[in-house]
Design brief:
The protein has a 3-stranded mixed β-sheet with strand order 3-5-4, with no helix packed on it. A two-stranded antiparallel ribbon has the order 1-2. It is of the alpha+beta class and 191 residues long. 7% of the residues are buried. The longest helix is centred in the first third of the chain and has 22 residues.
């Protein structure tokens, strides 16, 4: 798992993410506009839902994608994601290599999502850039508390975390922390 998450693709993307610091605001805006157009065009050509949506709202991909076209795209709702999740998987995706993830359902029904290894590596590269800004270096021990299912949501007694020995990371469940459980988190962090 770690080789896929922090391998060659991760290293390439880390360099790419770090180079972004050297761009001017204008260069960043140009880059964002180009990438947005690439993502939207790719979505149109490879994702059933977006092909239908873009056709229905009149986005013409024979011309350059504009900011006005972007403003036509409606917000994606939880309900739409739940209707037919398979409509959101790119036909270019190798399903064997998709990573299943999702939302916790704290504001409604949980939503299952699928990510490819490129998105996992990109997120990891950005995460390490932020850690480096905070002075955390690769190999340092660290604790992470974020919206990630670490253990089953029905668990009522500690541990509410898992330890990634290879990454030197204590991963704490944000879904289980409360006034009643906070002392367990503090005790584990002190260990």
């Amino acid at each position: 798992w770690r080789v896929l998450r922090e391998g060659v693709c991760f290293k390439r993307l880390s360099g790419y993410v770090n180079e972004m610091d050297e761009l001017s605001k204008s260069d960043i805006r140009d880059f964002q506009a180009r990438r947005l157009e690439e993502v939207v065009r790719r979505s149109y050509h490879s994702v059933i839902f977006y092909k239908g949506l873009f056709d229905s709202i009149g986005i013409d991909f024979k011309n350059r994608f504009t900011f006005e076209d972007f403003l036509k795209i409606p917000f994606l709702t939880r309900e739409r994601l739940l209707q037919n999740p398979g409509d959101f998987i790119s036909n270019h995706a190798i399903r064997l290599f998709l990573r299943k993830t999702g939302t916790g359902g704290t504001t409604g029904a949980p939503v299952t999502l699928y990510r490819d290894w490129y998105s996992v590596n990109f997120e990891t590269a950005v995460l390490w850039k932020q850690r480096n800004w905070a002075g955390v270096k690769y190999g340092d021990k660290k604790a992470t508390l974020r919206g990630e299912f670490v253990i089953d949501g029905s668990v009522k007694k500690p541990p509410f975390w898992k330890y990634d020995r290879f990454g030197g990371e204590l991963i704490l469940s944000s879904y289980h922390i409360s006034k009643d459980t906070a002392r367990y988190y503090v005790d584990e962090l002190k260990r």
